[in-house]
Amino acid sequence: MSQSTTNPAMEAKQSGPHFIIISILTLFSFGPQYFTNLSYILNQMIIQNGLKLSTHDMLLPSIASNLAFALGVPLGRILSMKFGIRKIYLTFIGIFIGGTLINIFSFGLYTLTIGRTIQGIGAGVLFLTILPLSLRSYPNKVRNYFILFAIGGLFGSSAVGAFFGSLSLSTSEWRWLFLLNILTSLICFWLGYTVLPQQKPEEKVSLKFDVKGVFLFALLLIVLIFPLFNLQEKGFSSIHVWPYLALAFILLVIFVAVDFTAENPLIPVRSLWAAKPISGTIMALAAHVALIIAIAGINGFLRTIMDPPFGSLTIFYFWFFIGIIVSALICTLLYDKLGAGILGIIGSITIILVSIQWRMVGPEAHLSMLSFQMACVGGGVSMVLISGALGTALAGDIHQATARSASLHSIRNFIGAVAAPVLGWFVLRMNAMHYEDIRGKTSLLDPELYSETAALVRKLMNSGHTFTEAKSLASYTIAVNAQKGAVLGAYHDLFSILLILGIIMLLASIGKALTGKGRSLVQKEKRILLQAPPKGKNKNEMILSNQN
């Protein structure tokens, strides 16, 4: 991103294959974490049955992994600056492989949790170790293709994880998914060892480590594990939840106060304190939570209301991937022309339109239409998130781009790690409220319900059931329908939050657009006309081409 006086042709020759290799090192380093997260959501029941765990037990590995990833993200920037990219990259690829091996040979809840946690911290550190290098490795004239890689590759990892997760449902096996992580990590280790240069003595940075910030942030995340794990079962009012959340809030306030005044803060929040970075940050944060809601909501709807065959579920998530690829192509071609704000507006409107439809979705919905809508959500969310993230990084002093990017992604992953279990509690809470509401409104004294029950009993008796059997089956069917109605109402409420987030994204995108298009990824070449040489010498004008 900085200016260079090297020959452009030579730079292109050197950087051509180099940026492709760095992109592979980036995608295969922390992309498997996104892959695993989404596949884990889809094949959770298989893992649960295989390890003889409860549904509640399955929350612990997921929560611990996400919080560990949130810790690793800001650490990656600091560690790579202090010890060099190569050393940190190869070390944490090895750590990620170690966590994956533990997952493959897991025999219970604690081994699975330990493995997922090690994976999370490894992938988190790799995130900001290699991602900034990936952007810098793209030659100026093709730097916009970084967006194609960022959306298509990184968001695509989530879509591919959902695809393979649904595919694993038909095989009833889950350990092979972690074997794929081993394969990609070994490729990264070999390529990283071959390509990444050793840190030279003159390149070493004398960096004062933010020990207080690291300690407070790590302690905050550790404290959060217990209440987030118990939240869905016990609720906010439980003694196992609210005191720990109160302690976590106090630690968060202390951490922000300490880091705000630190010389080299773990999370440089001060770098976001301006109109352009703030609007882009809100875009990215809202889009990240929207993606969690969309995947959790529509996956829950499909599994509990529609219950499609595994093959149809696989095709559904393939459409999610298609939407992401289309978004990647649009952003690649139009980011420099339209800017982050306009692209964010387009993505936000797409999310708003789909969320309005999903707020009224019912059992009669067609899977083909839902697949198309999921493609729109995948495209819209990725468009807003990447536009907001790039718009934040490129807003203001370019030398502070890494600090702004580190702050945004650290905050984004922290909020995402906390939001997921809170949203799970919200769905269960609303489900219980809707069920009680339905029970309160239904009674056998209700003429409509009585008529419906009598008609169902007659139908069952005509099918060969006795009166007692028919009455029992009719009562069971009505109870099941009431439960489905309550669950459906809870998902409608969840999609209402998605609509609100869409509106927030739209307002933030408008704010981003009003502050200007911002810095382009591909910089125009600067042509500097040198003074003509004295008479009697070469009179041709010498032009120095300087490229950003």
From TrEMBL:
Parts of the chain that traverse the membrane: 16-35, 58-76, 88-110, 116-133, 145-164, 176-197, 209-229, 241-262, 282-302, 314-335, 342-360, 372-398, 410-428, 494-514
Pfam families noted in UniProt: MFS_1 (PF07690)
Record carries keyword Chaperone: no
Matching Gene3D superfamilies: MFS general substrate transporter like domains
Keywords from the named record: Membrane, Transmembrane, Transmembrane helix, Transport
Topology in the lipid bilayer: Multi-pass membrane protein
UniProt-recorded name of the protein: MFS family permease
Organism in which the protein naturally occurs: Peribacillus deserti
